[in-house]
Design brief:
Helices cover 36% and strands 16% of the residues. By secondary structure, it is α/β, with parallel strands linked by helices. The strands form two sheets. Strands 1-2-11-10-7-3-4-6 form an eight-stranded parallel β-sheet. A three-stranded antiparallel β-sheet has the order 5-9-8. Helix 9 (241-248) links the parallel strand 10 and strand 11 (267-271). The relative contact order is 0.17. Residues 1-29 have low confidence and may be disordered. Bound molecules: 2-amino-2-deoxy-6-O-phosphono-alpha-D-glucopyranose. 2-amino-2-deoxy-6-O-phosphono-alpha-D-glucopyranose binds next to helix 3.
Length: 281
């Protein structure tokens, strides 16, 4: 296998799409087959939204279903608004689209505006017109009672739909993906997890204080995420630079769960200059 890392700079992408820049690999690091796209946040969001739009349109034309894996978080707001815009300009039949979100907090009432389901309804499902009954989340209520059952049910539902065509991912400051916190083994599947103190601190503003942030969540595991046919990971801002370095350049280590995705056959990582700043390009 020939491993290659390619850094597309936005200027180069504009001038000649094929141009590539290599960067030095750190001693002891594992080669990366992933594509790294460095652009502005708006360009990165438009690129991913365009890819998803293309996937939805091609499947709709062929009468095939599409299964999207979706993520929440501030990083995704721009992706979803770009996708809503694309769909408004070039409408696509969404009647055969099924979605699976990565995770959900435990202990929130149904319809709580801070739930990930509410986030998705506000930023994507409502404005784009996705059928609510085709938009799935891990069952947080069941998880609170019978965590094992909730995890297995979600895994089985994804499998019944033929797996995920494309999974969107953000990354936590500590390298988490979905709520797979540092130390998560590669084989972890959908399950209930305690939230890391960093993760709870990052969520505190939207909950009106740390004491109101749930302590647990149910999350898709690295197993289901890695099984997605395409992975698209986005990170913007300097606060993500260290996590991106650990994910892409430092040795693969469960201490940075995102690094366990590095050898996926179709991973594209889209960064702005600040998030890419520790890559040494
Ligand atoms: C939460 C989500 C993750 C997301 C992360 C980063 O922890 N569970 O899926 O990647 O936040 O969020 P943001 O994009 O707001 O930085």
């Amino acid at each position: 296998l020939e491993f290659r890392r390619v850094l597309f700079r936005s200027a180069l992408v504009r001038r000649s799409r094929g141009s590539s820049l290599r960067w030095m690999q750190e001693p002891g690091s594992t080669p990366v087959p992933s594509r790294v796209v460095s652009a502005t946040a708006a360009e990165a969001c438009a690129r991913v939204a365009g890819e998803i739009h293309g996937l939805l349109a091609a499947s709709a034309r062929a009468g095939e279903p599409t299964v999207l894996g979706l993520a929440t978080g501030g990083t995704m707001v721009g992706v979803y608004s770009a996708l809503v815009e694309r769909l408004a300009g070039e409408p696509v039949d969404l009647s055969r689209v099924t979605t699976f979100n990565l995770d959900e907090y435990l202990g929130l009432a149904e319809g709580d505006p801070r739930s990930f389901r509410s986030f998705m309804a506000e930023h994507l499902f409502g404005p784009a017109g996705f059928a609510p009954e085709r938009c799935h989340f891990p069952d947080a209520a069941l998880a609170a009672e019978q965590s094992g059952l909730a995890g297995e049910a979600y895994q089985a539902l994804i499998a019944r739909h033929g797996g995920l065509d494309l999974q969107l991912l953000g990354i936590g400051r500590n390298g988490h993906v979905a709520f797979n916190e540092p130390g998560t083994p590669e084989a972890a599947s959908t399950r209930v997890v305690p939230l890391h103190e960093h993760t709870r601190a990052d969520a505190a503003p939207s909950f009106g204080g740390l004491e109101h942030v749930p302590t647990h969540a149910i999350t898709m595991g690295l197993l289901e995420i890695r099984a997605a046919r395409r992975l698209r990971l986005l990170a913007f801002g300097e606060a993500k630079a260290a996590a991106i370095h650990a994910a892409l350049v430092a040795p693969v280590d469960p201490a940075c769960p995102a690094s366990l995705l590095r050898n996926h056959a179709d991973l594209e990582v889209l960064l702005d200059g600040a998030a890419a700043s520790a890559l040494g390009a």
